[in-house]
């Protein structure tokens, strides 16, 4: 068999059976080989940033990697921003980047570029397959390398795909998830018992239901406070789980949230830093006299460590969990808060919420936290334009669960062609565009950095008006049914209707 | 003054007075400083690939660099594909990439990534400004470094922008364009006079009117054939100029075009190679017994060298130039050829044609070559999605010239938000979408690589149907008036109307 056939069969054997693809000429044998291996599902995207963002969302929900299929260096470049987000969220993800045939590589053809250098900036594993005999083993190794998170990039010369002499490789053993040593748990137990102000700072695997319940047990038994990292990759939420609060994004609010903390215990995440530096503001919110301890690092078995800690310091404590309660359906003008209340009031059971609402997300987590159980995906790396693609990946990973994307308008435009893939796949995704007609976050930032001026010419670079974006028209142009809501009642009616019908829908929520 | 103010003033002083921007938080002082320097025109794009592609188009038409303003590593990543095209076309272009404040850099904040590594893959000059006192001199040096083409990337920490202590720097002297030595011209003259089959292979500065006329004089006097590189960055065309033929893209046709050539003389370009390698096909079209000679390399003064050659070998020859002739307006069904004939029949005087028609471009160069004088921009690096942005940049560079973009449908979707910037800037651009509902080039390639199978699942990855893209709706959603043409008559009517009215228009030309 040829390299492409062996590669795809090896991937399927290793549990990678979805490929978000935007192929070009050098990937044609891979495309052709898809016909031979029906277990591999190819999902076409019209832009590589959609493919990589979808693979990010898929990994977060499926807990295992999807592949992307990208066309040489420029294709990898187009996918880079959402690979950055996936890297920050520690999602497992396998890029297959087609390249020139080996004999063509030295000719500096027009599409030649330094793929390896670009791949290296986001990948934990990079390899160029050197022959058809190698490609399957390379692929098996790539999948094993990212079993506990991280990005593998397999660079695939076209002739390695098209030549015969390849054989399927067995899945490789994966590194076990490291256990946290009992002495570490003991040390943290002493800190928690010490009577000083302790915050358990949670992220990663602690955002699963079991992780949160174990942390809440510690909190209930010891008075330690629980604070969640600002943008966790995936969070289980809803009634029956602790109502946890995230560390706020604005530096001043983050510092206030941790003020007085003497011991910050990291579990599943790293110490917080502000998203950006600002004139005269410290770079992180941890108080000067606070000691930072580590219960578990990202990639370690933090849930087991937290359970051991709970057993040690609060064996009989009951975690404080939320009772089921929804906001009432609001009426009247649509603003971020009434939008959030509509979402909270109508959130279906077992939904996946993809949150790229940014400034329009005020109230969104609060008004959904005690509703039906759901999973929440947030923007981990700050590279906007992950929301629409992530929703696609989540819907492919979980076809029986409704996906709701809450999407800022400016950010939506980076990867807007994701909507076409929604329609192509008939993905059950309801997209709510937070249409405020501006890069509102930047208007805020322009003030915050103390910029000397915010006159007409500067504002024009932050304003999405002139002309306004008509998301209904854009969505319909890509095959997604769309409506516009200008009041809370309209949004409620349209959201109810969208959720009642399978397949994609978009609601342009005009927030003014 | 602060670093941002000094930077912008220095750029304006060095002749860089347009900035295609997609800013984020770390660029807010740059944005604020735009208000203080009205000579710098900020053009907002909704995606960085539009900014970089626009800067590419601007440089090709203005002959000098624009700046881009990009947001950290992910912003640079989003712009990378069109930077690749600019690199291949040797356009001068200055990226200003905002980065974290210096104090914040070491904290590994969520948006931290290796900007320098990514920038290095496309740039001839990369520097990180280390203090406000340095930034203006860095900027002046960057502009000087790319005077004869190439990409400079200035990485700009936020605090270098916001801190005071900066001063404007003078424009730096630029390296002169290297002259070709008389002995080189003499050597080529001997080859051309030698009586064997000679091809002058032209690109770069030879595609100016003067360059083509000098080459055509050589051809007229010596019998040397003229062949143009497949995708020149900018070509002067129309009646009064030689009707030159480009080396075809398909390897078989390229090899046929050079068959029998004993001497290939490069002028303004490098030796041709095929875009991709294919099983059993040589990597380039140059015959085995052909000797390759260099008259001028890219970046050298090839026009002067060609004139000297003409003076030496054909002082009295008259170049063969095209008489004015347009195709008749066709009627009936719309296909690539009738579309091309409509464009040829209606092409306005002094137009700029941006060609990303790909497979739908059959007949397009042929049917426009003897019409009114115009400039033609093509896709230099093969990274699709440069067409819509390039047209924006060309329109900003040449506000008094009509711009016509001939744009393949699949490729349009990579940077579709360019249309919004057309509307924002009221750019005089008429976009014709070649709407064939597929990645037609890949359907062709799937056959060509000899892929074993082209069944249903493979085809689904090359087909843009299910759902079809409604470009009229998409364009209207971004504020661009749009119509649909399904016959040659409709296309002619709509093109005439679009050209008669300033501002952007889009015509969805349904080629079936």
From TrEMBL, chains A, B:
<dbReference type="InterPro" id="IPR045229">
    <property type="entry name" value="TPP_enz"/>
</dbReference>
<feature type="domain" description="Thiamine pyrophosphate enzyme TPP-binding">
    <location>
        <begin position="369"/>
        <end position="508"/>
    </location>
</feature>
<protein>
    <submittedName>
        <fullName>Acetolactate synthase-1/2/3 large subunit</fullName>
    </submittedName>
</protein>
<feature type="domain" description="Thiamine pyrophosphate enzyme N-terminal TPP-binding">
    <location>
        <begin position="1"/>
        <end position="106"/>
    </location>
</feature>
<dbReference type="InterPro" id="IPR012001">
    <property type="entry name" value="Thiamin_PyroP_enz_TPP-bd_dom"/>
</dbReference>
<keyword id="KW-0786">Thiamine pyrophosphate</keyword>
<dbReference type="GO" id="GO:0003984">
    <property type="term" value="F:acetolactate synthase activity"/>
</dbReference>
<dbReference type="GO" id="GO:0000287">
    <property type="term" value="F:magnesium ion binding"/>
</dbReference>
<comment type="similarity">
    <text>Belongs to the TPP enzyme family.</text>
</comment>
<dbReference type="Pfam" id="PF02776">
    <property type="entry name" value="TPP_enzyme_N"/>
</dbReference>
<dbReference type="InterPro" id="IPR011766">
    <property type="entry name" value="TPP_enzyme_TPP-bd"/>
</dbReference>
<dbReference type="InterPro" id="IPR029061">
    <property type="entry name" value="THDP-binding"/>
</dbReference>
<dbReference type="Pfam" id="PF02775">
    <property type="entry name" value="TPP_enzyme_C"/>
</dbReference>
<dbReference type="GO" id="GO:0030976">
    <property type="term" value="F:thiamine pyrophosphate binding"/>
</dbReference>
<dbReference type="GO" id="GO:0050660">
    <property type="term" value="F:flavin adenine dinucleotide binding"/>
</dbReference>
